Amino acid sequence: MHFIYLEDYKEHPDAKISPTLLWEYDLTNFDFKQMRNVVVQRVIERGWPSDWWALLNLYGEKGVKDAIKVIPYLNDIDMNFVSVAFDIPFSKMKCYEQKQLRQTHWNS
Questions:
Q1: pTM here?
Q2: Which of 71, 13, 19, 20 is CA-nearest to residue 81?
Q3: Amino acid 6: pLDDT
Q4: CB of 87 within 8 A of CB of 2?
């Protein structure tokens, strides 16, 4: 990883993912393993450092990278951030491939 505040995630083992990021789910029976891609996408889009620490402690760097590669949509800023932070080329990210497939009009 290339960001200092992410690299020290092991120093924050008690960090929890904010329930507000997953507001529409019942977290009493929520399967964090099965819903990994949703959790990773929410943290990328709206998470605070404590959410990132919890995410990395929960899934590990490899698990987060694997999820990033298959997330179908991220905006340009988030896509660039995770590409740099986790050293993932755009060509390995589904969200980038999806973006390339969407046609834009000449005047947009």
A1: 0.87
A2: 71
A3: 79
A4: yes
CA 78 to chain centre: 9
Q: Please enumerate in sequence order all residues whose Cβ is within 8 A of that of 63, keeping only pairs 6 or more positions apart, or say none.
A: 36
Alpha helix ranges (H) inside the chain: 4-7, 36-46, 49-70, 76-85, 94-101
Average pLDDT estimate for 60-83: 96
Distances (CA, A) of 65 to 23, 46, 57, 93: 24, 17, 13, 10
Cα within 13 Å of Cα(4), Cβ side: 0
Cα separation, 54 vs 43, in Å, equals 10
Report pLDDT for 89. 96
Phi-psi region of 60 (alpha: psi -120 to 50; beta: other; left: phi over 0): left
What six digits make up the tokens of 79? 């896509």
- Residue of 68 and 103 predicted with greater confidence: 68
Give the pLDDT confidence score for residue 98 in this predicted structure: 81
